[in-house]
Amino acid sequence: MMKYADEEPTEDYLFKIVLIGDSAVGKSNLLARYARNEFYPNSKSTIGVEFQTQTMEIDGKEIKAQIWDTAGQERFRAVTSAYYRGAVGALVVYDISRRQTFENITRWLDELHAYSDMSVVTVLVGNKADLKDAREVSTEEGTALAEAQNLCFVETSALDSTNVQLAFQTLVKEIYNVLSRKVFFYQEQRPDGKLSNGKTVILQEKDVDSAGAPTRKY
Amino acid sequence: MFGAQTKHGEMSSHIWESQKKKPIWKGNSNVLRRNVMVRFSDLYSFTVEGSLEDANVFNEVRERVKEQGRVWWALEASKGAGWYLQPKISSMSEGIAVSSLSLTVLTNTIVLKRLIRKGIPPQLRPKVWLSVSGAAKKRSTVPDGYYEDLTKAVQGKVTAATRQIDHDLPRTFPSHPWLDTPDGHAALRRVLVGYSFRDSHVGYCQGLNYVAAVLLLVMKTEEDAFWMLAVLLENVLVNDCYTDNLSGCHVEQRVFRDLLMKKLPRIAAHLEHLEFDVSLVATEWFLCLFAKSLPSETTMRVWDVLFNEGAKVLFRVALAIFKMREDEILAAQHIGDVISILHNTTHHAFDPDALLK
């Protein structure tokens, strides 16, 4: 990261964010709504990897959020280690009208932590909030789980757009904040040339390099 | 059966309309051919969006398909109807002494292999596929009515597999004029649910919905589609591609990784540098057998070879996709760029011969 510090301030950030959660909870539609403001009652079920890149500005810096989407069926979990690699953020999604998808959240979190850095910023998302009559998971339960796991929480509807922007923007901002703190910490440690906790700093450096790697503007 | 087979008339008129405006674009027609997007319906009634250039390639391919049809009819006239249904030598390792086979069988096997590589005419696909894949033989080992009995016996049963199938039915090629109708959903459901009970180790794996849907379109009857699905999973493909942890699919990825290193070392080295793992794209390719990635006629051409020669064609096609855009891949700086390049390549691969040469 630091080797980029002297370069022109045109550099921007690329954050890799993964969407995870059971099949048919609406991952692809959350992404379609956020990236293109579109919604398909029936979009093709995702098998491989799809992604969209969205740009936003924080503190005058251009942030590119590259959001990855993949299959949700359980047996696919074993082929997706490459999917998680380098992710700095995750939206863990369930369907408020299907309790099972909520109960599987802890397994998704385990998966996320097994394949990525513990510091990956995570937002818990209860999607399909428009299905009020079919609700099986209360907002309180969602909040409680998020608190217990120390996650942000939001209920969304990709269908009527409720909170979709909010979910993604909150995540990106939080990643940016975490990263800024780390970079700041790194700069503080740097001048004496000796790092009190080399291991930690190396990890942070790697964080910034692989995940938030600044990319040149075209 | 489906009433939604081919709509050549409609398709050609779409393209023709686009082309007749051509004179207006003179001057920078090359740019326009690449950038002007047209929509057309392909040989299996999928709506395709592509550039004018894609549409032109597509038209050429259609002509070639007709040409191939004439070759097959001519052979049918000289060799007799259904000559291709005779026994064939699928590999020398089967232990059949070549000398014991009649010269005709040997010649036919060679001729057929060459013909199939150039494409089976759409009208003959059901017959040829059933024969060369071994599906017809497989079916002949069970009593008549097996499929009907199976689908009746499993009616109304609810399992993890059927629940997942129900989620996926409307999400399998949405907006296809037959597949995305109540009839289409019902037929696809019977095939997938039936198979999930035939092999409970597989049950249902996402991806099979796309495979079975295309089989229905080609084979035209559910029963034939079912047997093609069975022969694919039980004989043609690597074992355990679709079972619980997709272990067969892992094996395929590993083989493909090695092949890439051997055949396209520069790409392999660059991908390693970017920390790009082939599973990011090849999972979908190998599980859907390209049905979700390639245009339908191109997919069919891959499957023609798949059923006659076996699963190794999947690697050949995957390698060809990487090779087609070697320079761009080598210039890519991010994993995301590589994925985009490959998605783009597959979606516009309207010329099957470019992939299968």
Automatic annotation (TrEMBL), chain A:
Tree of life domain: Eukaryota
InterPro entries found in the cross-reference section: P-loop_NTPase, Rab_GTPases_membrane_traffic, Small_GTP-bd, Small_GTPase
Primary location class: membrane
Keyword annotations from UniProtKB, A to Z: GTP-binding, Lipoprotein, Membrane, Nucleotide-binding, Prenylation
GO molecular function (one): GTP binding
Pfam families: Ras (PF00071)
Gene3D superfamilies for this protein: P-loop containing nucleotide triphosphate hydrolases (3.40.50.300)
Membrane topology: Lipid-anchor
PROSITE patterns per UniProt: RAB (PS51419), RAS (PS51421), RHO (PS51420)
GO cellular component, one term: endomembrane system
Compartments, as annotated in UniProt: Endomembrane system
Keyword GTP-binding carried by entry: yes
The keyword Coiled coil is assigned to this record: no
PANTHER family: DRAB11-RELATED
Family listed: Belongs to the small GTPase superfamily. Rab family.
Name the record gives this protein: Ras-related protein RABA5a
UniProtKB/TrEMBL annotation, chain B:
Residue ranges occupied by any Rab-GAP TBC domain in the UniProt entry: 119-310
Origin: domain of life: Eukaryota
Molecular function terms, GO-annotated: GTPase activator activity; small GTPase binding
Span of the signal peptide: none
InterPro entries on file: Rab-GAP-TBC_dom (IPR000195), Rab-GAP_TBC_sf (IPR035969), Rab_GAP_TBC_domain (IPR050302)
Protein name (record): Rab-GAP TBC domain-containing protein
Organism: Taxus chinensis (Chinese yew)
